[in-house]
Amino acid sequence: MNTPPKSAQQLCVIQISDNLTLPLSEAEIHAIRAQGSGGQNVNKVSTAVHLQFDVRASSLPELYKERLLNLRDSRISKDGVITIKAQRYNSQLKNKEDALNRLAALIKSVTVQKKTRKLTQPTRASKAKRLENKAIRSQVKSLRGKVVDE
Question: Residue 67: inside a domain, yes or no?
Fold first, then answer.
């Protein structure tokens, strides 16, 4: 299960999509101690990663910056700084990769253009079917009433 070694260029950029990359220098990455259980190792080794990415100072296109800043996400501060804390793994390198992948996923989520819904009219057959079902339900409900002897 050896992963192929990454080239030097792959280590220096964050790949968002085929035509959008960010230099790794735009993201501040700090190693911190992880929270939670882990025995004595958790007190000695800084395996968790704290990633900060300033949206306003980044080289992202203005449209993506605007969309990111308009997101209602607790990871984005009022100052436009995305903060991601990764501590899933016991390895600092894996946590760093996880944080970068989560940043890329967040940015990728605003790059996708949602299709606008085209308004459509119901077909004649669906209108007829709806009215037919309505008449049947009306008939069934009218038969549920009290029986009056005349």
Answer: yes
Burial 83-118 (b: 16+ CB within 10 A, else e): ebbbbebeebeebbebbbebbbebbeebbeeeeeee
Residue 14 CA to residue 23 CA, distance in Å, equals 6
pLDDT at 4: 46
CA dist., res. 128 & res. 69, Å (int): 48
Domain range enclosing 102: 8-111
Does residue 52 fall inside a structural domain? yes
Has this prediction a pTM greater than 0.85? Answer: no
In this prediction, residues 121-132 reach a mean pLDDT of 96
**SS3 of 4, please?**
coil
Q: Is the Cβ–Cβ distance between 33 and 43 less than 8 Å? A: yes
